[in-house]
Amino acid sequence: MSSIALVGNPNTGKTSLFNTLTSSYEYVGNWAGVTVEKKVGSLKNGAGKLIDLPGIYSLHPLSRDEGVAAQYLIDESPEALVNIVDASQLERNLLLTLQLLEYGKPTVLGLNMIDVAKARGIYVNPEILQKHLGITVLPLVARTGKGSGQVLSVLEKTSSIPAVTFKLHYGELVEQAIEAIQHELQQTAGLPNHRWVALQLLEQNPVVLELLSKRMNTSHLMEICDACQTKLQNKRLALTLPQWIRSTRKEYIHSICLEAVDTTAQKPHNLTERLDSILTHRFLGLPLFLVFMYAMFKTTFDWVGGPLSDIVDGWISGPISDGASSLLQTIGASGFTHALIVDGIIGGVGGVVVFVPQIFILFLMISFLEDSGYMARVCLLMDSTMERMGLNGKAFIPFIIGFGCNVPAIMAARSIEQPKERMLTTLLLPLMSCSARLPVYLLFAAVFFPAQQATAVMSMYVLGVVFALILCKLFSKHLFKNESSVFIIELPPYRMPQLKTLGRSTWEKGKGFLRKAGTIILAGSVIIWLMSYAGPTGFNVDMDNSFLAKFGGLIAPLLHPLGFGTWQAGSTLVPGFLAKEVVVSTMNIIYHTPDTAGLESQISQVFTPLSSISFMAFILLYIPCLATVGVIKKETASWKWTFFSMGYSLVLAYMVSFIIFQGGSLLGWS
């Protein structure tokens, strides 16, 4: 079965094309040596596997993870390549195309976003591109699927794709160096196209250099490179060899675009530019972003999500719970089994599942912001603020993803080029309010702030961001000194996301929560229920005499200065380390409530508005869940930083909750 690699710049519609061409896909572990997930899909026509390479601007990596593409081309050698380019940004995209053509494998060029280019008054002639590059060029609108059928037809038989004959002349000095390196490489087996390897070596690609150093003595190769660079410098042709190679490619690409691209009808101010003049405005940009975020929270928690959650709660506490009770009575189940299923499983898991509609709506709106192109602008807006704190704007994307789940957010931090900023982002991301904490906020906001639920919940999200920025400044000043920063981000054109793409993206984000409901939360609910059902004197004991009460009682004195020094509150925090979702399911079991309304009634008797704020702040800031701790260890490859992350968050949570409750009490709040 054929293996075909899909390659392209970020934001060129690569993911849309991948989704259109494949009937199904899966993550098959990580790429060798790095932590980027490997995404492989089955082509709809059954012609083979499509490998989705990470979005890159060049085969010369800026970050460790960007080296995945070059590593793949060296190690796995696909039968063919599909290179997708943005027709509205063709000149920049073709830099990667030339590097891929030099690789020598059969290649198809997907000329995507022809609709965007047309809207801007830019017309690209595919025939002229095909003539100059010597490969098949197919116009596409990957977002709608237009032209994807042609791509599938071409890929049906990779052997029928014409061989690449492209060869760019880099001048006599460089060509002599290429020939000399090729001669040296002849003695080494298992290398891809020798001319491509030679060019990558001359460009000082660290991935290729590392590969060659493992297979041969590279000292003579480096002498050839140095000699060539010295000759270029002596003739004042270029300062460095990579600069000469890049400028040669750019000149050739410019000559192609002069012939293939018609910009005579290009509009001076397109829609993207007009929207950017408002949405990225120096003074209006951030206030507008806050308005959008507030609207997102209102939609999620008040306007749409709240009513939907009430419906789900009605089903769980009504037909599902009553139906299970009737069935268990009919089959003569024991009191233990009845209590386990109805109170432990349905009560515990159901207490969390009622928030699924709100969580999916939140993911839907985050996906909309990502796919519309607005999220990249937010990073640009936040860059100056983030830079003052020790990060750059690119770190803001993982922060936003962290609102869904901290685990993929920490993985998203891999796109940050500088090790210092990647480490800082990884350490601070657990302070973002993930969807697992959301049920706790919603529960307490509904009880104590019913008229301002969206504001109360949003304040927790803002609090997490504020503390992340403050700690970022402290950590960058004292833990990571004298490290430089660079900010490079693609600003894609604004576009209306496709419903199919939004649905798929939302499901990808949300299914993890459902998976937790069926595994961790279910197991946690059963364990918590058993601890509440049993005690030193036996089974079916009073809740206050259970193992759970004894366990919570050990922690309660420590929590008393924070305003929630009860065994019930203490019992919810330790299971919350496994998964923050378990906090609400534990409360459902402890207070033995049939529905959300009953739990809210119990909560209102135990907590006060002030202690509820203190409790929510503690849930926000204290030790990350077990899955997040695991991914921090994986990403940092250090137990030191993993334990540091756990320790500082616990200390911060205690200090903030202490200040909130004690400070509020001194001011006469309750």
UniProtKB/TrEMBL annotation:
<keyword id="KW-0410">Iron transport</keyword>
<dbReference type="Pfam" id="PF07664">
    <property type="entry name" value="FeoB_C"/>
</dbReference>
<protein>
    <recommendedName>
        <fullName>Ferrous iron transport protein B</fullName>
    </recommendedName>
</protein>
<dbReference type="InterPro" id="IPR003373">
    <property type="entry name" value="Fe2_transport_prot-B"/>
</dbReference>
<feature type="transmembrane region" description="Helical">
    <location>
        <begin position="279"/>
        <end position="297"/>
    </location>
</feature>
<feature type="transmembrane region" description="Helical">
    <location>
        <begin position="428"/>
        <end position="449"/>
    </location>
</feature>
<keyword id="KW-0472">Membrane</keyword>
<dbReference type="InterPro" id="IPR027417">
    <property type="entry name" value="P-loop_NTPase"/>
</dbReference>
<feature type="transmembrane region" description="Helical">
    <location>
        <begin position="613"/>
        <end position="632"/>
    </location>
</feature>
<dbReference type="Pfam" id="PF07670">
    <property type="entry name" value="Gate"/>
</dbReference>
<keyword id="KW-0812">Transmembrane</keyword>
<dbReference type="InterPro" id="IPR006073">
    <property type="entry name" value="GTP-bd"/>
</dbReference>
<dbReference type="Pfam" id="PF17910">
    <property type="entry name" value="FeoB_Cyto"/>
</dbReference>
<keyword id="KW-1003">Cell membrane</keyword>
<feature type="domain" description="FeoB-type G">
    <location>
        <begin position="1"/>
        <end position="161"/>
    </location>
</feature>
<dbReference type="InterPro" id="IPR011640">
    <property type="entry name" value="Fe2_transport_prot_B_C"/>
</dbReference>
<keyword id="KW-0813">Transport</keyword>
<feature type="transmembrane region" description="Helical">
    <location>
        <begin position="395"/>
        <end position="416"/>
    </location>
</feature>
<keyword id="KW-0547">Nucleotide-binding</keyword>
<keyword id="KW-1133">Transmembrane helix</keyword>
<dbReference type="InterPro" id="IPR030389">
    <property type="entry name" value="G_FEOB_dom"/>
</dbReference>
<keyword id="KW-0408">Iron</keyword>
<keyword id="KW-0342">GTP-binding</keyword>
<feature type="transmembrane region" description="Helical">
    <location>
        <begin position="345"/>
        <end position="368"/>
    </location>
</feature>
<dbReference type="InterPro" id="IPR050860">
    <property type="entry name" value="FeoB_GTPase"/>
</dbReference>
<comment type="similarity">
    <text>Belongs to the TRAFAC class TrmE-Era-EngA-EngB-Septin-like GTPase superfamily. FeoB GTPase (TC 9.A.8) family.</text>
</comment>
<comment type="function">
    <text>Probable transporter of a GTP-driven Fe(2+) uptake system.</text>
</comment>
<dbReference type="Pfam" id="PF02421">
    <property type="entry name" value="FeoB_N"/>
</dbReference>
<dbReference type="InterPro" id="IPR041069">
    <property type="entry name" value="FeoB_Cyto"/>
</dbReference>
<feature type="transmembrane region" description="Helical">
    <location>
        <begin position="513"/>
        <end position="534"/>
    </location>
</feature>
<dbReference type="InterPro" id="IPR011642">
    <property type="entry name" value="Gate_dom"/>
</dbReference>
<feature type="transmembrane region" description="Helical">
    <location>
        <begin position="455"/>
        <end position="475"/>
    </location>
</feature>
<feature type="transmembrane region" description="Helical">
    <location>
        <begin position="641"/>
        <end position="661"/>
    </location>
</feature>
<keyword id="KW-0406">Ion transport</keyword>
